[in-house]
Specification:
Blueprint (H helix, E strand, L loop, with lengths): L6 E6 L6 H11 L5 E6 L6 E2 L5 E2 L13 E4 L12 H13 L2 E4 L3 H7 L7 E2 L15 E2 L4 E4 L2 E4 L4 H14 L1 H10 L18 H28 L11
Length: about 240
């Protein structure tokens, strides 16, 4: 059933974000009638995404009230937030009163660092999927995973799917379908290389090699944060 209350939606941005983790869902969520969309960061200063695109926040943490939907994108800059207590505290505070928390790609790892994934089903980008267990999550290999008030998606473009699912939960499926039609979201990719399972082996090898330095850093961080959260190390469990 559609909810007619005015919705407050907030997206966190940070340096070296994957801009599509933000702008894909923005394209969907900003079209919800009777809603206000907030782009949030620590400071009101322009930030560059991982490829150099300039993004400008309009609210700081202290200026944000209650949110119906809290959206946490990912990207290489996620690593810098894993020990950022000011950001993690903001996420915990807003998540406590939000109707839904929505992570895209490695935004799930940020939620994990905030302690919000323990015993929750979740997904993330395929190159970081194996890290979910370090945050106490129950990994589910799917494009979109919904566990109560937690919506998580796989990598980057899956944010569009997750955003449409969020609209359906907040406003009903009819509105979500209207938005999908309005943006003509009907994927028909030219290649079947959108997942490690479907991509040619040489493509998978090349992309894994490109991700390796960041993947190694993320593993070390995941193990350290898991210990900080007093979670058992999956490696010591023989997982």
């Amino acid at each position: 059933m559609a909810d007619r209350t005015h919705l407050q939606i907030g997206s966190l941005i940070f340096a070296e974000i994957d801009q599509s983790d933000l702008t894909g869902p923005f394209e969907v969520l900003s079209r919800i009638p009777g809603s206000t969309y907030h782009v949030i960061a620590k400071k009101k200063a322009p930030l560059r995404d991982a490829c150099g695109l300039i993004l400008t926040p309009e609210k700081t943490f202290s200026e944000v009230g209650r949110l119906d939907l809290l959206h946490i994108p990912g990207g290489p800059g996620q690593e810098a937030l894993m020990d950022d207590e000011e950001t993690l505290s903001f996420i915990r505070q807003k998540a406590a009163n939000a109707r839904y928390v929505f992570s895209v790609c490695t935004g799930a790892l940020i939620l994990g660092a905030a302690g919000l994934l323990k015993d929750r089903k979740a997904t993330t980008h395929w190159a970081a999927f194996h890290l979910l267990k370090y945050f106490g999550a129950i990994p589910v290999d799917a494009r979109v995973v919904i566990d109560g008030d937690l919506i998580s998606t796989a990598g980057v473009t899956a944010g569009l799917d997750g955003a449409l699912r969020a609209v359906a939960l907040l406003c009903g499926e009819h509105k979500a379908q209207e938005i999908q039609l309005g943006i003509q979201y009907a994927p028909d990719p030219p290649f079947h290389s959108g997942s490690p399972e479907s991509a040619p082996p040489e493509v998978v090898k090349a992309v894994r090699a490109a991700y390796e330095p960041l993947a190694a850093a993320r593993l070390l961080t995941a193990r350290r944060i898991g210990a900080k959260l007093n979670l058992e190390d999956p490696e010591q469990q023989g997982c």
